[in-house]
Amino acid sequence: LLVPSVTSILRLSRPKQTLNYSPKQADSFEIGNLMHEYLDCYVTNRKIETTDLENSKIALKLSEVIINNIFPKVDSFISTEATVHNKHEYAGTLDLLAMVDGKLTIIDYKSSYRPKSSLQIDEHFQQLAAYALAHDSMHNTKIEMAMLFVVYKESYKYDIHTADLALLNHYKSMWNDTLGYYKEISS
User: Fold this and answer.
1) In sequence order, what are the beta bridge partners of 85?
2) Per-residue pLDDT tens for 78-137?
């Protein structure tokens, strides 16, 4: 049974959808995918395989920023690149599930050329809320916190955004509204 991805539901539920991709966006997707692959290798103690291509070098540098500045905040890694689904309504792949400050935390990595707008941050946290709902349902867990790590491609600086349980519950409600709207427009 094929179900839509969380990111597709969020994208298709936005007003005034545009689907024009520039070469820079194509590079962004490749860099982001490589960064996720390198971080998955790091967490699972596998060798990171890189190439001499520019996007691979950028992805490696972004990964190193996360490994050196963000991973030290993690008490323990639980799961990386795990597929989740919820009641045949949606599916997705969470970047990382870990213990942070003694709390079960869902973590997402993003690479970007510029700081994210508050609207983009809200959408990323809805994505994390959807994954948390699915993971909790599938594995009888209670994810208590969400973290979003944004690493910037040109400066290699980063931002950390967090949502405690109260805020995560707010994003779960926003996600349920988005999912309801998506079901309306796609039926």
Assistant:
1) 91
2) 999 999 999 889 999 999 999 999 999 999 999 998 899 999 999 999 999 999 999 999
Q: Is the pLDDT of residue 148 over 70?
A: yes
109's enclosing H/E stretch is strand 103-112
Helical H runs in the chain?
6-12, 23-43, 54-69, 118-139, 165-186
Distance CA 145, CA 179 (A): 21
Which residue, chain included where needed, has tokens 């599930």? 97
Contact 123, 182 (CB under 8 A): no
Q: Tell me the pairing of strands 103-112 and 145-152.
A: parallel
* Total number of residues shown for the chain: 187
Q: Contacts from 92-97 at CB under 8 Å and sequence distance 24+?
A: 92/5, 92/6, 92/7, 92/127, 92/130, 92/131, 92/134, 94/128, 94/131, 94/135, 95/36, 95/39, 96/39, 96/43, 97/135, 97/143
User: Is 159 in contact with 115 (CB distance < 8 Å)?
Assistant: yes
HSE of 114, CA atoms in CB hemisphere, 13 A: 5
